[in-house]
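Design job #97: recover the sequence.
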């Protein structure tokens, strides 16, 4: 599978803010890393770029570009916010070509921060031809020795010693992964402003084994073997209506604090997508980008989208503010509601007619007759290549068929 033809995510852009003072950093490619613990660092592919008077720190994850504007300078500290998430790099520049500081993620409890370093490269490194080829589809298990091990599909594409790909799970994908293989050792990593994923491992000629890190707070082992026919459970089979229920109903508050009940007169006779999501969730943001396109294409024909945010904030006002920022930042016209705290148990309690909500995002597709037609768990986004394309084609076809009824 080729995961490189999808191009960059224009959704991951931000408003330009110009630096009025002299350029605080030299442009170019930087060797950067997040230090997850005393022995493990996550490589970050960073470039500093200038467009007119605006300076960007660009994070590269395979074909994805995340453009972060150098927003302000407080004393000797540069503030570099991520465009989609409540997180930022806070760094000090030495001689305009070396950075030291922290990545701070405000969506996590406490003052969650990870040391960040970067140094400007003075010469380009040569890509060597690797002695092994890891390209293929890998049957993967996280915590493989545990009874509750998690099954996944690893997709790897190798060119020289450069790796790209993703990991598919039943609750979503790991988005754009990038790395290298040297001898029997390899890594794949992604850093998007809310997730910092690293897979470190070795290949013995048959099996990939190693460790998976999610930031500094989670670590487990994994094992993978080539298996082109391995499949996960279908995403439309995991969450479903309980036998005694045939329809969806709920009452929540909108982002302005007003009461909102479903169903209602405005959705009667419409095709409705109910999206259970969170603004902190990269898979949810990929899905929201797709739903923006879907809404623009089909709204006038009778499509409505109701997006319910479960947020990493304690109070209703804080939760609503995060959702408002998402709506305004990306010019989203569909309906937004506040579910509450980012908690799948809470979401399951609010949607008692479902067996359970096991993932953010989860989407419920409802026909003009008010009946549930599909419930889709998780989201495999653009980083999954042909899987994303197939999902879009099937979902567009479903919406068109429901609108025609």
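Job complete. Output follows.
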């Amino acid at each position: 599978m080729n995961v490189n033809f999808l191009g960059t995510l224009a959704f991951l852009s931000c408003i330009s803010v110009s630096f009025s003072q002299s350029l605080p950093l030299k442009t170019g490619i930087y060797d950067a890393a997040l230090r997850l613990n005393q022995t493990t660092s996550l490589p970050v592919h960073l470039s500093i770029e200038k467009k007119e008077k605006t300076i960007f720190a660009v994070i590269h994850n395979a074909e994805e570009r995340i453009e972060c504007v150098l927003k302000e300078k407080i004393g000797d500290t540069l503030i570099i916010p991520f465009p989609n998430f409540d997180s930022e790099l806070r760094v000090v520049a030495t001689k305009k070509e070396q950075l030291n500081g922290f990545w701070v993620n405000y969506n996590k409890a406490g003052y969650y921060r990870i040391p960040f370093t970067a140094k400007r490269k003075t010469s380009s490194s040569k890509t060597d031809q690797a002695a092994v080829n890891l390209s293929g589809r890998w049957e993967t298990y996280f915590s493989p020795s545990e009874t509750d091990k998690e099954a996944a599909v690893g997709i790897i594409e190798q060119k020289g010693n450069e790796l790209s790909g993703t990991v598919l799970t039943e609750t979503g994908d790991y988005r754009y992964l990038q790395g290298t293989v040297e001898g029997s050792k390899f890594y794949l990593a992604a850093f998007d402003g809310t997730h910092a994923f690293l897979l470190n491992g070795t290949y013995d000629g048959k099996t990939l084994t190693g460790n998976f890190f999610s930031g500094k707070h989670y670590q487990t082992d994994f094992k993978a073997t080539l298996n082109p026919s391995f499949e996960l459970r279908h995403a439309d089979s995991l969450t479903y209506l309980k036998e005694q229920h045939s329809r969806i109903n709920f009452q929540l508050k909108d982002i302005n604090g007003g009461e909102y009940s479903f169903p209602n007169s405005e959705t009667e006779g419409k095709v409705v997508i109910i999206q259970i999501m969170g603004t902190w969730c990269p898979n949810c943001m990929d899905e929201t980008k797709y739903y923006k396109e879907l809404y623009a294409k089909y709204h006038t024909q009778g499509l409505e989208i109701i997006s319910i945010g479960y947020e990493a904030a304690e109070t209703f006002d804080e939760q609503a503010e995060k959702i408002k920022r998402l709506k305004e930042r990306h010019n989203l016209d569909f309906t937004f509601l506040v579910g509450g705290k980012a908690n799948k148990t809470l979401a399951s309690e609010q949607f008692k007619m479902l067996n359970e909500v096991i993932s953010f995002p989860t989407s419920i597709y409802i026909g003009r007759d008010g009946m549930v037609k599909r419930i889709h768990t998780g989201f495999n986004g653009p980083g999954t290549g042909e899987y994303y394309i197939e999902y879009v084609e099937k979902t567009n076809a479903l919406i068109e068929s429901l609108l025609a009824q």
